């Protein structure tokens, strides 16, 4: 995945200004920055919710034209949302199953008339979903309607739904926001395991510095829509611009 | 059994049958409301339009005949064919799908992420447009619709009940057919929405647009799908009502009766639409029976009132709005602050 010279404007407001960076296969890439820096906008550009005003998006070395979010999803880019977007009326299992919609082949008519084939397909997908449920340790809430779950578990279900699509690139918008220490540790473990075991490429936004520095291979730092730092956690930590953005600069 | 009880049973049965007809219309509302959060004011007109088109196709009527004749001085009225009922129904179903696509293209597409009230207003506009279009296309006269459904009083039931109770129940064959069709329709819709991939996508869209997009669901496809299904349900309702009372423009008013049904059953529940319809159907028939009978209301209260069927449903709905606004089966919406 590569982004070249992305600029995003809403009317007169410039949310992202001429930013370029890449995400290598199999790495964990973090985007950090103060509130309003344009991190979520960046993620929305990658997932197709926003179309950049200027600049090019390359996915798997191929330039991507303006695409609808659902088309991007079908390319293999799955995401979670900052303020959780789940299907509250459905059970946990059904929610995760929706993640597999892009992979289901049988059409409306075949489902109606060749029950066997559709049932076999459903079964195969269920198996994959069960594996994800095991992986994220949410077996006991499988049948619970999502609306009743506490916040931390909802976040986990949302991750499960994204994983169900077997994404080539997984985008996580503040996966640990609002969690307590224990939940954060769990989530960090899941993210690392995902990356290790399935070599899923992950791009995440996170505010908790400790978490970001421990998890990620490389970090992009944004401030006021510009990129002010890019590199390994150590490099970024010692970058003067980054320190200024986070700690403020004394005016003298 | 005393006569009064037998009468009451017959009235109840007839009420159930009428209730099924109400449910058929209410179903269309629930489908669209569940999938897009839009209250589709045009659902009744959709049923009218479907019935008009069906009759027109069946009788080989030339669409827009009045306009063509007035413009070119011709004297067209029919193509001179008479289509078999099944073919005409299939063609009409096809036209309802095309209509769904046009509605999505011309109206809904431009109103994505607008407030529900805006979409509601759009469907009001759509209702008037379709009513006018139906008028210009097929003419405003009352038409007879006959797709070969059995009509009239069921002899079998009359004979059998006469043998049992010494009193034959009058039940319309068409009402029995309508009941069977409604049961099949609800079963098919339930299986579709619970077990098919598109059904799951549909429920997903109903819950959260953003999340649906993020798992690769195309909103536009789902909308076309939903409106097609609503069009199909409207066609079924149009056939039943059209056969019962002729295809006429007052058909669009049956949508009004669906409102109390929905308030009772809840806007988001398919079983709710069915049960709401049955309660209203039975309720209004029984209430009418009791209140207008000198032996019952006359003896109990000292007076009788007639024509309660016209307002009973609405008063019941009003009571529900006060005491249980989400209906019997609707979701209680709690907004956290």
Note the topology.
The complex is a heterodimer of chains A (about 250) and B (about 325).
Chain A lengths: L1 E9 L2 E10 L5 E5 L6 H8 L7 E6 L2 E3 L4 H7 L1 E3 L12 H7 L9 H6 L1 H21 L15 H14 L4 E5 L7 H17 L3 E5 L3 H7 L2 E6 L2 E6 L1 H5 L2 H8 L5
Parallel strand pairs in A: 3-8, 3-9, 6-7, 7-8
Antiparallel strand pairs in A: 1-2, 1-4, 4-5, 9-10
Chain B lengths: L2 H34 L6 H16 L6 H8 L12 H22 L9 H23 L16 H11 L7 H23 L1 H11 L1 H6 L4 H27 L8 H12 L4 H23 L4 H5 L7 H15 L14
Helix pairs in contact in B: 1-7, 1-8, 1-10, 1-11, 1-12, 2-4, 2-5, 2-10, 4-10, 7-8, 7-10, 11-12, 11-14, 12-14
Describe the structure.
The complex is a heterodimer of chains A (252) and B (337). By secondary structure, chain A is an alpha/beta fold. Chain A folds into two domains: 162 residues, 3-Layer(aba) Sandwich (Rossmann fold); 81 residues, no CATH class. Chain A has ten helices and ten strands. Chain A has a six-stranded mixed sheet, with helices on both faces. In chain A, strand 1 and strand 2 form a beta hairpin. The radius of gyration of chain A is 19 Å and the shape is globular. The N and C termini of chain A lie far apart (42 Å). Chain B has 337 residues and is mostly helical. Chain B has one domain. Helices cover 70% and strands 0% of the residues of chain B. Chain B is globular. At the A-B interface, helix 2, helix 3 and helix 4 of A face helix 8 and helix 9 of B.
Biggest sheet of chain B: strands, sense, closure?
Answer: none
Gyration radius of chain A (Cα, Å) is: 19 Å
Principal-axes shape call of chain B: globular
CATH class type of the largest domain in chain A:
Alpha Beta
Q: Which CATH-level-2 architecture of the largest domain in chain A? A: 3-Layer(aba) Sandwich
Give the structural class of chain A. alpha/beta
Looking at this protein, list some descriptive labels.
heterodimer; A: 252 residues; alpha/beta; Rossmann fold; 2 domains; 6-stranded mixed β-sheet; 4-stranded antiparallel β-sheet; 10 helices; B: 337 residues; mainly alpha; 14 helices; 70% helix; globular
